[in-house]
Design a protein that fits this description.
Layout (H helix, E strand, L loop, with lengths): L1 E5 L6 E5 L6 E6 L13 H4 L7 E6 L3 E4 L5 E4 L15 H20 L7 E6 L1 H12 L6 E5 L6 H7 L8 E7 L7 H13 L3 E7 L7 H14 L7
Parallel strand pairs: 3-4, 3-7, 7-8, 8-9, 9-10
Antiparallel strand pairs: 1-2, 2-4, 5-6
Length: 233
């Protein structure tokens, strides 16, 4: 597998290609306070070298003050004031991140990966950003993967969503003992998406705010399903 760091984009990214001439891309956003390195180690568990020609793009969020953490600066996709539905949400931060993610997707299209071969993925805060952008993106995507996260700006989605991504397959997973983003918040997000007619593949695991081996296996199956091998008739 080849890897490298790119600095030509607005967002600095880490890239891993599982074979020459990739024909699909997974853009994977990390959680609050982490960086693009966070999920690099799972790539060999998701796809064996040469099994598929995929490019994994792991961007680093910019550093910004986070209200929930006393204004401390850290890598974050948007500001957070609280972890419940009563807390104000950073709509401007989501819009800024949306623009940066769209730049990454546009770059993949320029490199020959059609939008329908791009999966937008994320963990925790990154998963919320992935749902925000993926459901509003004007071109059909291959899928959205939302891990240990929630649906942001719920009241705006019905008016802002993109009809072309109404049938997009959404993978959602959550830990039953998540102390950061409560399990019920994930369930409520799933139910809201289903109410709007989205297809959600739901998984739950006996884990905290993290990933586990069973989840990685389910992610692999999901990715193989939404990104079929184009070289097979």
């Amino acid at each position: 597998m080849r890897s490298g760091i790119l600095r030509r984009m607005t967002l600095e990214t880490i890239e891993i290609e599982t074979a020459a001439r990739p024909d699909a891309t997974v853009i994977w956003l990390h959680g609050l306070g982490a960086d693009g390195n966070d999920f690099v180690p799972v790539v060999p568990e998701l796809v064996r070298q040469g099994e598929r020609a995929w490019r994994f793009v792991f961007p680093h969020a910019p550093s910004r003050p986070v209200t929930l953490n006393g204004g401390m600066r850290m890598r974050a996709w948007y500001d957070i004031s609280g972890l419940d539905r009563r807390s104000a949400e950073d709509a401007a931060g989501f819009r800024d991140t949306d623009g940066a993610i769209r730049e990454l997707m546009a770059r993949e299209v320029e490199r020959g990966i059609p939008a329908q071969r791009i999966v937008l993925a994320g963990f925790s805060q990154g998963g919320a950003a992935s749902l925000y952008t993926g459901l509003r993106y004007p071109e059909r995507l291959a899928g959205i993967m939302a891990l240990s996260t929630y649906l942001p700006l719920v009241d705006r989605l019905a008016a802002e969503r993109s009809a072309v991504n109404q049938p997009i397959p959404i993978f959602m997973a959550h830990g039953l003992s998540d102390p950061v983003l409560p399990f019920n918040l994930g369930v409520e997000s799933r139910e809201h998406l289903k109410t709007l007619g989205y297809s959600v593949e739901w998984h739950q695991y006996p884990m905290p705010h993290s990933v586990c081996a069973a989840e990685i296996a389910d992610i692999r199956n999901y990715l193989l399903g939404v990104l079929p091998n184009v070289n097979v008739p």
